[in-house]
Design brief:
heterodimer, A: mainly alpha, 12 helices, B: alpha/beta, Rossmann fold, five-stranded parallel sheet, globular
């Protein structure tokens, strides 16, 4: 009993540090890459850190019409739920800290929490712009939960069909790379699922082209319109950490490979190699699913977002699931 | 309110048009194009005064826009800077002493940096931002 508490305390502290530092780095790299793709020089890599410091020292305004306790609690709730995801995610080939206590379904629900916190904060800030933004965020969530759910079901079905114990556990999925389990049809199916995951990621992170909830030019930053100072800084932290969580989930589901077994070196060097390899994987997935998406496409309207997720995303994932099942039965 | 060093490195700009002819607004948009790329210095346009550190005001303040400008000024959290872009905002320009004006911008809100020109070139807008940064550094030294 005390062991699990000790593990929890150390885990929360280290994961908070990882979430904050990693969130800054990944946001900095994303902004720099986007700038390079637009033929600009772009901000410094540590620009998100300066933004955060500045926001922490700014005045924190609570609007007159806001519900103060919900308004102030929402950013903390968003950040805390992202840190909770970290406890259940496998990083760099290590087992998740809280292994055996939560699975893929829990992560799916926890991923919805930061967005829900932003919705509560938006409604609580009492601004019409924030209210419209919150409604749009909810509609977007309804949209992308369908493909995301179908992806999770496909993975669990394949794991269960391969006769592995605990098919929903991320440890099982990380230990058995999905591409080794399936035949040609299944590979096509999982490629479809991977494409769907790449399309879901920007909406999950409220990045372009699916950033209609915080559309800068039409809704004046939407959900975050009234947030300033400390609260806004907390939301930036939460968004940065959520980027790592979402990309970490993609890597854990689709690319759980490790390379350290090919090197004849000590355990410490192996860990370093593994962590470096993991960082490369995270940045590659980030480049394709966040930076490339937001630089290459303009913002979709909210009706188009739902259409894309339900018609295109739904068709893609169900076709993928069908192909995987066909492959399993052959 | 103390001004942190981080403010110099991440100025977020909110643009408010108080009756401008759009000439200055187009030049502001030109100043954030890849050719000048102010994001190098952490400067970016934001959509709401609550996120802003700098308020860019273009145009002479018409009677109808006076209240709105005051509201935007009060909505912006401290510490904040006000920059006036264009001859209209600096002095009233061609609308000097018009009966529809509530005066140039500094009659309504306190102004830190003036950028004259009709419209000012993007280079002068960036020079104005550098002047604002110098002013911030002087305040921090005290």
């Amino acid at each position: 009993m005390t062991e699990i508490f000790l593990k929890l305390i150390i885990g929360v502290v280290s994961m908070t540090a990882l979430g904050i530092v990693g969130g800054f780095i990944i946001q900095g790299v994303d902004r720099k890459l986007a700038a390079l793709m637009q033929a600009r020089i772009g901000p410094l890599l540590r620009q998100p850190w300066w933004d955060f410091l500045k926001l922490m020292r700014k005045e924190n305004v609570v609007p007159e019409h806001a519900v103060p306790w919900v308004y102030n609690a929402a950013p903390i709730m968003a950040f805390a739920s992202v840190i909770t995801i970290f406890l259940y995610l496998p990083f760099a080939g290590f087992n998740p800290l809280m292994e055996g206590y939560g699975d893929l379904i829990l992560i799916m629900y926890l991923l919805a929490m930061p967005a829900l916190a932003m919705v509560f904060g938006g409604f609580a800030s009492g601004s019409p712009y924030a209210t419209i933004g919150a409604q749009r965020e909810m509609v977007t969530m309804i949209g992308y939960e369908l493909p995301l759910g179908a992806i999770v079901i496909s993975f669990a079905w394949k794991m269960a069909q391969s006769g592995l114990a605990h098919p929903f556990s991320l440890k099982t999925i990380a230990a058995n790379p999905i591409w080794n389990l399936v035949g040609p049809f299944g590979i096509i199916g999982f490629i479809l699922l991977l494409l769907a995951m790449i399309v879901v990621t920007p909406a999950e992170l409220s990045k372009g082209p699916f950033d209609a909830p915080e559309a800068k030019s039409e809704l004046a930053e939407g959900l975050l319109v009234e947030y300033s100072g400390r609260n806004l800084a907390m939301f930036y932290l939460a968004l940065g950490a959520k980027m790592i969580a979402m990309l970490g989930l993609t890597v854990a589901l689709f690319f759980p490979y490790t390379i350290s077994q090919y090197f004849q070196v000590d355990t410490t060097v192996k860990i370093v190699i593994e962590v470096l390899f993991y960082i490369i994987k995270i940045f590659l997935v980030m480049f394709v699913s966040v930076t490339l998406m937001r630089v290459s496409m303009a913002r979709f309207r909210i009706t188009q977002i739902v259409e894309i997720y339900w018609k295109l995303g739904g068709t893609m994932t169900f076709l993928g699931l069908f192909l995987i099942m066909l492959d399993g039965k052959l | 309110m103390s001004i942190s060093k981080a403010l110099n490195k991440s100025l977020w700009v909110y643009h408010v048009n108080t009756g401008s002819c759009n000439g200055c607004d187009i030049e502001i948009v030109a100043a954030i194009t890849p050719r000048y790329d102010p994001e190098r210095f952490g400067i970016k346009l934001v959509g709401t005064p609550r996120h802003a550190d700098v308020i860019l005001v273009t145009g002479p303040v018409t009677n109808k826009m006076k209240d709105k400008l005051l509201r935007v000024y009060h909505q912006t959290p401290d510490p904040k800077l006000v920059m006036v872009i264009g001859a209209c905002g600096v002095s009233g320009g061609p609308f000097y002493e018009s009966y529809t004006l509530s005066g140039p911008v500094d009659d309504v809100v306190p102004v830190d940096v003036y950028v004259p020109g009709c419209p000012p070139r993007p280079e002068s807008i960036i020079f104005g931002v550098v002047t604002a940064l110098k002013k911030l550094e002087e305040i921090q030294k005290k």
